[in-house]
Amino acid sequence: MINKRNIVGAIAVAVMVLLSAVPSFAASPSSTQPVEVTVSPTVAIAARWAGGGNNSTITLGTIPADNIQRTFTGGPAGQEIMTFSNVGIDIWTRLADNFAGIDPFAPSNFRFTGLNITVPRSYTTTYQIIGNNTPKAPAGNHTIFPVTFDITIPFGTAPGGYTNTVFFSAVQHGFAAPTTP
């Protein structure tokens, strides 16, 4: 025979076990919680020509093949490198190859100054540092650095269009030089 007292007792114990498993806290009209976030190092640059968009084409115009060096001053009307990085960075530059056209000519006919380079340096197809330990950008903004280009078109270079690609690449200061692109 089932004892009613035993059933009531078992139900009472079961209810107490269930209630003890539910967390209890007092509700209030407001609540606060701490927030934690870790910001990772960010290396980010952009390059633009004459106020154009990121990676805009560098257009030097029509130049005679007279072996005279011509300068294209960096800044809003010329070349600019922008950093959005939150750490100090090293900025590197190179050319893809010879200037392609009817009479290809060497990268050394194209030179750069800017950032840490104050005396014009001839381009090569391997990376050269242009900005050593460039400071981080201000919070919520970017920093702009002008880069000046010089070009000399060798005597006898046939008329026509010539192309090349300038690469700018950045790494966190003190890290190995880039190898690509």
What can you see in these coordinates?
The protein has one domain: Immunoglobulin-like, CATH 2.60.40. 10% of the residues lie in helices and 31% in strands. It has one helix at residues 4-21, and strands at residues 45-49, 69-72, 79-83, 89-95, 110-114, 117-122, 128-134, 143-152, 166-172. Strands 1, 2, 3, 5, 6 and 8 form a 6-stranded antiparallel beta sheet that branches. It has a 3-stranded antiparallel beta sheet with strand order 7-4-9, with no helix packed on it. A hairpin with a 2-residue loop joins strand 5 and strand 6 (117-122).
Largest sheet: 6 strands, antiparallel
Percentage of residues in DSSP E strands:
25-35%
- SSE pattern: HEEEEEEEEE
Which architecture per CATH? Sandwich
CATH names the topology as Immunoglobulin-like
Distance between the amino and carboxyl termini? 87 Å
